[in-house]
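In this section we walk through a basic example: taking a raw amino acid sequence and producing a predicted 3D structure, encoded as discrete structure tokens. The instruction is simple. Fold the sequence below.
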Amino acid sequence: MSRPIVHNVSLVDLIHLLIGLSWAGESVAPWLERFSHMRPKLRAALRFARERRKDWKEHIDRVLNIMEGVPLFESTRGSTGDGIKPDSG
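The resulting token sequence is shown next.
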């Protein structure tokens, strides 16, 4: 493995990295996997930041949705979980 081993990454730096990647449209999945041992802290910190920084809400929600395994189109297309809007008629 040619990747350097990173120890003692501060939570705030990791939060900023994830938000920045989401903002830029990049994948956060590899970083979430790499720091999977910090998921509970990450989730709590992202939820806290979402309440304090409304301008980051959309980007934080993207990261949280990936962490929680929410289907990509669930929140915009309906509540069936399969991305298909329920038929109303």
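Looking at the output, two observations stand out. The helical segments are 11-23, 29-34, 39-52, 57-68, 74-77. The chain has one domain: 11-75. In the next section we compare this with other chains.
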